[in-house]
Specification:
about 130 residues; elongated
């Protein structure tokens, strides 16, 4: 007997994820975020503890400019913060510490749920094999 997929309407998302950037939640926006290369790996690394950009570069196996680009995407959703002051458009120093925000922590908790990933999968338009 196959387990039925959970419908998007049946999935409960924490409030912080439910209104990314103070707009109504759109599961497509979450799917877009996690579909970007290295985003899930970076969020996973930061879920354990804050890391410097040098540590993230080593952990994720990316170049610094690639890491900076992905961090800007994650920061645009208010999921991370850096200890340094200023814009995410400025180059980060190797010693800058990156940490999850409260919203980032709640997003990680949501992404730890199989039902959320199932909903993301369903919304992507994939058919469940019968």
């Amino acid at each position: 007997m196959k387990t039925p997929l959970v419908s998007v309407a049946d999935v409960h998302f924490p409030e912080a994820v439910a209104s990314m950037n103070d707009r109504p939640y759109d599961i497509a926006a979450l799917r877009e975020l996690v579909s970007r290369r290295h985003v899930v790996e970076i969020l996973d690394a930061l879920s354990n503890r804050p890391h410097t950009t040098a540590e993230l570069t080593t952990l994720i196996h990316v170049r610094r400019n690639t890491l900076a680009r992905v961090l800007r995407v994650i920061a645009s959703q208010s999921l991370i913060a850096a200890d340094s002051q200023g814009s995410w458009d400025w180059p980060l120093e190797a010693t800058d510490v990156i940490r999850l925000t409260g919203r980032g922590t709640q997003t990680i908790e949501s992404l730890s749920s199989l039902s959320v990933w199932t909903a993301l999968y369903e919304c992507a338009g994939y058919e469940h094999e019968r």
